[in-house]
Design brief:
With about 120 residues, the chain is mainly β. Helices cover about 0% and strands about 50% of the residues. A hairpin with a 4-residue loop joins strand 5 and strand 6.
Length: about 120
């Protein structure tokens, strides 16, 4: 049984930073593809960042240079460091995983079969 649990969301002023994390069980972060997608009210889901089992990464253009995805293999945990936050970054952030890395592109994260319940990020 795969379980992904996000934490670390919150409210921050524009220009600030937040780090969201995802604790995984039932699926090792040493394999497959992992990522984050977000969804704001009234908007479509957007794949934000992806990291492969080998450490290759991909980011949405909207967050390149500001967000960094990383994984801690020893703790089976995924992180997303978000800097220089903007109001348009507001939304629910979801951790997601797939056992297969077919495309190393952040946009595919929205279709990953395993996902958490999300954590809210609000930038004002």
């Amino acid at each position: 049984h795969v379980q992904l649990v996000e934490s670390g969301g919150g409210s921050v002023q524009a220009g600030g930073s937040l780090r969201v994390s995802c604790a995984a069980s039932g699926f090792t972060i040493r394999s497959g593809c992992w990522g984050w997608f977000r969804q704001a009210p009234g908007k479509e889901r957007e794949g934000v960042a992806l990291v492969t089992y080998g450490g290759s990464t991909s980011y949405a253009d909207s967050v390149k240079g500001r967000f960094t995805i990383s994984k801690d293999n020893s703790k089976n945990t995924l992180h997303l460091q978000m800097n220089s936050l903007k109001p348009e970054d507001t939304g629910m952030y979801y951790c997601a995983a797939h056992s297969v890395c077919s495309w190393v592109q952040a946009r595919v994260v929205i279709d990953f079969p395993y996902r958490g319940q999300g954590t809210q990020v609000t930038v004002s």
